[in-house]
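**User:** Everyone, produce a chain:

**Assistant:**
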Amino acid sequence: MSSIFFLIVIIFSAIIHEYSHAAMADYLGDPTAKNAGRLTLNPLAHLDFFGTILMPLFLLFVSGGSFLFAYAKPVPFNPYNLRNRKYGGACVALAGPFSNLSVALIFGLLIRFFPLGILADVLSIVIYANLLLAVFNLVPIPPLDGSHILMALLPEKTIKAKIFLVAYGPFLLLMFIFFGFNLIRPIIFWLYQLITGSPLI
């Protein structure tokens, strides 16, 4: 039951994530996502058949419920429409993880300062799911948000490194999911304890 609830939380958190990308792009001058009907919290506008349905069900079956992940349909945006060409794309990318961190912070502070009883167990799943989305998406591997932030910060002379990352991004991401995912678990656990004041059990 907890696995199904976690999956539902991940899906809706991913929708908030993508909506935030769209909202930031629109704020910075690019209406592409808005014109595509993505500046909305309506789940139907963001669902991706593979990332939101097939992949999480497959992971649920293969891992026996021990590992679940899902993502929504990526938001389209045109970097040439942004008022700040150099760092606008990084701001759009950062908006997604920032929204998930904000959700985790709001519910985490509720757990920290109010006696919620059994509701705290429910909210802890929401917090963990959003921290997972935030930290994972900040990994600087294409097509994750962290790669867009890295691209904006790297100097122009590193163009070969940028081309390499884009070309081999999917492969590198797959390797990271299978062999490097445990590297970000301590960060997620640390953030959880920092926000809630108690360790993640």
Summary: Helices lie at 2-27, 32-35, 49-62, 88-113, 119-137, 145-153, 159-180, 185-196. The chain has a mean pLDDT of 89. The two ends are 17 Å apart (CA to CA).
